[in-house]
Structure to design on (541 residues):
């Protein structure tokens, strides 16, 4: 297989043991394994998997995953490299998907913020915690989540609100469709004395230890609770006498009847056979219908998956086997093609965050959006028509305070606009020699456009700035709470490589505050937006 390489694609490991990656210590080898460190790296991996028709699975820390004993023939992506955590405002904490739950609790302790103590020592990362709407000790992640940044298989970034994602107890839209949590915005409006926060955290840790959560490798609770039954799943299995029961190397904890341990040498089949016995007994003996909480990933015996109530897709070569937990399975004909898009199609939408990822580095609540207005086919038929719409929106008054002199009429082309408060869009080619475009704009529609053949080196013929090359290819967009531009296909087309285009949104307050969307993993200092190697690769359709 020929590796597709881009400037933002992380290294890909081959023949990686999944048993060494998950909490259970169970699993075969993955043909490919990668750990992106930024949204751009993650997008490049997704593009590569789709181009190469690779089966795709996702993991966080592996705290709630049972990997198959069989080899995984595609790519497993871990979000453990996405570790950024910083305060956007006094009560809003921005966390990349790979941030450990305990680290969030520890940050809240340092800041004296109430509401996240229950996250302490909860195994896992916040992306997976949000994806399954996890809860414990009376806390639920939906109650503290302000927004979720997700990426689709084709690389589109969406900013979703809680009502779009959370359906109820351990149910979310993200469990039903192939979207990946990239980051989470958590909100903690209440303060609390650090001594009280520390005492709560210590109590939760002691309770976990008392229940022997960490005696042997496990994924915690095997089944979800069914609150209509009036008692927990652990209590039901205790009543049924499952404590200490075993299947091969898998054993139900003697201290918590809803935990299945790997006592040593357990296979995925052992765990599922034991879980299937538990599920059947609960239904047959007490009428309790319980759903598996542990997520299965890979190729399993279909009967075992069925006995545990796990949804799966039969393997085309061997109907006795089934695929479970995949984001993308090219074996299945109905999954090879992505859904037909609707236009306008959101390519990127999310918040501008501080360039360096520091606490309160940039005014919060400023958003940017880039939409594809026409299909590639329709754009080619009418190249002068608007193709991309770029807008800045939200509560941006606190950002755009350094304005051009009043002698410059609003709406005018303004040389030197970068000295003032501006929102910026960069458009680049996948070819390093292809150059890039830069657009800058203010809420009053002052604007400037530039073309570069290399970082900060203006294209020949574009050394002296002038509106003439751009006026017929750009159109100003202004409305209540938003401003931006529409750009023609004729302008964009030279920068499209195949179906891929590189995009980057930025902003400057004019007071030394800088922001990015999407954010970068390791931005260089001083702030420099002219780095196409960091730009986000998006697939046009």
């Amino acid at each position: 297989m020929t590796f597709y390489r881009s400037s933002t694609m992380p290294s890909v490991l081959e023949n990686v043991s999944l048993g060494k990656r998950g909490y259970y210590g169970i699993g075969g080898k993955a043909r490919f394994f990668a750990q992106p460190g930024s949204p751009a790296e993650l997008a490049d991996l997704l593009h590569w998997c789709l181009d190469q028709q690779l089966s795709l699975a996702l993991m966080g820390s592996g705290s709630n995953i049972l990997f198959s004993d069989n080899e995984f023939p595609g790519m497993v992506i871990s979000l453990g490299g996405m570790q950024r955590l910083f305060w956007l405002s006094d009560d809003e904490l921005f966390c990349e998907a790979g941030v450990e739950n305990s680290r969030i609790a520890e940050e809240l302790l340092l800041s004296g913020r109430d509401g996240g103590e229950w996250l302490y020592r909860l195994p896992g990362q916040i992306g997976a915690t949000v994806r399954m709407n996890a809860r414990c000790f009376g806390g639920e992640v939906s109650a503290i989540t302000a927004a979720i940044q997700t990426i689709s298989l084709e690389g589109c970034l969406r900013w979703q609100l809680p009502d779009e994602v959370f359906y109820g107890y351990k149910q979310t839209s993200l469990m039903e469709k192939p979207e990946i949590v990239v980051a989470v915005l958590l909100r903690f409006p209440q303060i609390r004395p650090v001594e009280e926060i520390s005492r709560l955290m210590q109590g939760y840790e002691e309770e976990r230890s008392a229940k022997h959560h960490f005696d042997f490798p496990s994924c915690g609770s095997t089944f979800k609770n069914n609150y209509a039954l009036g008692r927990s799943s652990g209590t039901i299995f205790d009543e049924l006498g499952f404590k200490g029961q075993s299947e091969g190397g898998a054993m139900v904890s003697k201290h918590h009847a809803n935990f299945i341990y790997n006592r040593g040498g357990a296979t995925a089949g052992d765990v599922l056979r034991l879980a299937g016995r538990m599920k059947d007994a609960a239904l047959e003996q007490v009428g309790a219908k319980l759903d598996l909480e542990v997520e299965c990933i890979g190729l399993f015996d279909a009967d075992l998956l069925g006995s545990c109530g796990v949804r799966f897709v039969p393997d085309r070569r061997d109907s006795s086997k089934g695929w479970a937990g995949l984001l993308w399975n090219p074996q299945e004909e109905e999954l090879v093609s992505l859904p037909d898009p609707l236009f306008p199609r959101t390519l990127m939408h999310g918040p501008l965050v501080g360039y360096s990822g520091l606490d309160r580095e940039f005014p919060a609540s400023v958003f940017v959006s880039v939409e594809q207005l026409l299909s590639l086919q329709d754009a080619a038929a009418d190249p002068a028509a608007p193709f991309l719409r770029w807008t800045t929106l939200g509560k941006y008054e606190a950002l755009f305070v350094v304005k051009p002199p009043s002698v410059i009429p609003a709406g005018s082309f303004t040389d030197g606009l970068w000295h003032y408060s501006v929102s910026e869009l960069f458009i680049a080619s996948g070819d390093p020699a292809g150059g890039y475009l830069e657009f800058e704009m203010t809420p009053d529609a002052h604007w400037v456009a530039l073309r570069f053949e290399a970082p900060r080196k203006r294209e020949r013929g574009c050394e002296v700035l002038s509106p003439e090359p751009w006026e017929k290819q750009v159109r100003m967009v202004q409305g209540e709470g938003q401003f931006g531009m529409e750009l023609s296909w004729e302008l964009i087309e030279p920068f499209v490589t195949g179906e891929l285009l590189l995009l980057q949104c930025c902003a400057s307050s004019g007071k030394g505050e800088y922001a990015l969307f999407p954010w970068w993993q390791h931005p260089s200092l001083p702030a420099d937006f002219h780095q196409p190697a960091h730009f986000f690769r998006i697939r046009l359709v």
Notes: The first helix runs from residue 39 to 52. The chain has a mean pLDDT of 93. The chain has eleven helices and 33 strands.
